[in-house]
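My main concern about presentation is that the manuscript never shows what a single data entry looks like. The format is easy to grasp once an entry is in front of the reader. For illustration, here is how one protein appears when written out as sequence plus structure tokens:
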Amino acid sequence: MKLEKQEAIIEGILFAMGESVEVPKLAEALGISQEEVRDILQKMRQRYQSEERGIEIIEMEGSVQLCTKKEIYEYLVKVAKQPKRHVLTDVLLETLSIIAYKQPITRLEVEKIRGVSCAHAVNKLVEYNLVCELGRLDAPGRPLLFGTTEEFLRSFGVQSIEELPVPNQDQLAEFKQQAEEEMNLKLEV
């Protein structure tokens, strides 16, 4: 099968699915190896970039998706109903950060780190599709385990959680000291 035909098939599948598709499934559909699919996807990405196309192929943890380029967004909203933009408050961002770096994690573990209840924050993050239930912990009460979603990866522009920035150890020590000081102030009151 010619390269142009393979590209057309991949493009058609990604367009029709409208969500991410695993590379092994594309390889199976085309009857070729995953490495060959990755080579084709790379050529498609380069062509989309060089031709100033309005679409791009993004990769997230072994899956790929056809998406509108970020530069096109302002024009898209003139035609389509403006999508609802979720506002991430400091509480939501803090909770999301803990989940992203510590996943899979229970709500109780997040609360221990934050020092306050976070049921509302976790529920909002699930509603925004940035966090999902991954299963249950094999412990008394079988608490739910939470982790990030593909939407989280898309929203923050990373292919996998391994690409998240590594926290600076000096900053972590400073944050820990500040938290301990705040705890001492609360205990004195």
